[in-house]
Amino acid sequence: MKPLYDKIGVGYAQRRQPDPRIARAIHEALGDAHSVLNIGAGTGSYEPTDRNVTALEPSAEMIQQRPPGSATAHQGAAENLPFADRQFDAAMAVLTVHHWSDLNAGLREMRRVARDRVAILTFDPAADYFWLADYIPEIIALDQPIMPKMNAFQAILGETNVAAVPVPHDCTDGFLGAYWRRPDAYLNPDVRSAISTFAKLDDISGALKQLEDDLASGAWEARYGDLMREKSLDIGYRLVVADWS
After folding, report:
1. Can you give the pTM of this predicted structure?
2. How confident is the chain (245 residues) per 10-residue block, as mean pLDDT?
3. Which of 1, 140, 171, 175 is the most exposed place for a label (fewest CB within 10 A)?
């Protein structure tokens, strides 16, 4: 089966620009690691530029979009890493574990190749969903089977630290929750095309029409307008770190 992003990844790099505030949290979680493996690396978002980074990505489409001068990229899957035991100081994975075919196998592989630590940005399915799920409740049904619970990481990696990663109101990375304070963005098909969730949903034209109507009538503002005063929001994104150094 072709990787999902071979199908939906065209133009992905333009919409998925790393947000510097989220990048800072990820880079701090890597500690003093010099060599880093980025698993599910995509177009290279969040790869630190001051370390020796190796990238692994299953989608040829995404590898082709990596910018000139970015880390060397290998095509492959998290569940079978083509690297030696303890080859890297650290391994990182950003918004990718829900795409893996076998979470436990991927985590065991991360643990095998990383000497000191692992840092994973993911979504906690036990967290409260933000307002978009009120319009498209199918998002919840889609997430629940594929988003790992936080204790799943500890079962394989050992003791972990889990920290909330609030999403800035002007987040530059166009993942699903990035536009929580820019609701009209979800009406843009180009925005949706860079979010894997929308590629997995059936016809949501009715939900989008309802959102469009509510924005025009002021109904959205009446229900969710308080959010417009928030500079960042915890909507379930979590940074999971295991440190053996």
Report:
1. 0.89
2. 46 71 97 97 91 95 88 96 98 95 97 98 95 96 93 96 98 95 96 88 96 98 98 97 95
3. 1
